[in-house]
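This part of the workshop introduces the protein records we will be handling. To make this concrete, we reproduce a full record directly below.
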Amino acid sequence: MTYQRRELIRSLVGGSLLLPGILQELLANDSRNDMEASSLQPKQSHHCPSAKQVIFLNMSGGVSHVDSFDYRPKLFADHNKTYRVSDRMLEAFALNNRSVDKYFKRPQWDFRQRGQSGLWISDLFPHIAECADDICLIRSMRNDHADHFQATLGIHTGSVSFARPSIGAWVSYGLGTINQNLPSFIVLAPQMPYAGAQVWASDFLPGCHQGSHVVPGPEPMPNIKRIQPTSELQEIEIGLTQSFNKRHLSLRKNVPDLSSRVKSFETAFGMQIAAPEAFDLSKETDATHQLYGLSRNSAKGFAWQCLIARRLIERGVRFVELIDTGASNNWDSHGDMAAHGSLAKNVDQPIAGLLKDLKLRGLLGETLVVWTTEFGRTPFNTAKDAKGREHHAEVFSSWIAGGGARAGFSYGESDDHGCAVATNEVHLHDFHATILHLLGLDHERLTYRYAGRDFRLTDVKGRVISGVIA
């Protein structure tokens, strides 16, 4: 049937009844529908990958770069001195607070050189600082928007203005899954973040690639237990359902999301066995719990998320995202930077424990760990001795570790006070292109045809930052 349809399309083009562009669209749709049912199967990468999987650590609200990973000695020295702010930077301030004259604010935490690499990391993250020789700091990041909603979309989807698939969905689409009994993309988040579920949405990609949201707690994946009294009875029921589904699907070849829906039922069946085992920490040792700073029998907190992330990676989940907070009570420290202290304490030891545990188990080399936030915070404020900081998308810091990243290295710089990029800018498109590259994916070739054009995570821009690759 599909073959005859394609021959008919080509014959119509031969008779000049269809334009070549329409032909390309129709054939692309045809091929896509044929592949929908197996779109989660493992796929060949574009080139030899350095990493197989990703753990994406998203700190929601805007972590201050100048208080954490971007050491600016002059900002200490010039505390309370006047700084004349550009119009672009003023957009981060409220309309009634856009006077161009601001005052530098010194970092609230001291910096020290860490490890053999000598990376400068502040006392805000003492445990992560112990892993300095394993991480690659990027101190010249830039986003396209200074509001949370848009910037969060940007760091996840590459677009600050339109709904687009999340990076996790793109990776799932490009590489497929390793374990057919677990979702290829899982998000561990206690609350809804800025931009909501769009953070892990597949948008126009097949629905099977969207992230599965897991909420820390005693039942992280609700409704996963079977309701039938025996597994034999359930298998009979599933078999009957599959036969009906396949018959229904065979009569509706051109319904884009139908095969994804059928596949989701098959995955859900496998998850009834695989998911409870993956989320069961009872066999983890006391030493492992202590490494992450997790109390035994606890099923909440970022330490739980980090330990579960390691277990999911071990079981072949392709992309795991961890979000520490939600759209409130996060790193958005307008009023007082002291709030950064408790937020850092929540994530610092668990992240360090995750890096150490992955390394100990030989998983860090094939797992790319990404730490980021949507933007930084202003090195200045309206009043002298101001306690807080505003949004700052002009420059901020992220880091990567494992999975082919250059270890114990710092890439890019902000200016003397951390106000703007000075050297080696890494736009969010460059950041995404580099992550994809380490996974063996060419960001210019990882495309999906939708609404008459080929879309990609990096839009029409982006370059691989070779300087951060080992």
Observations:
- Residues 223-278 form one domain.
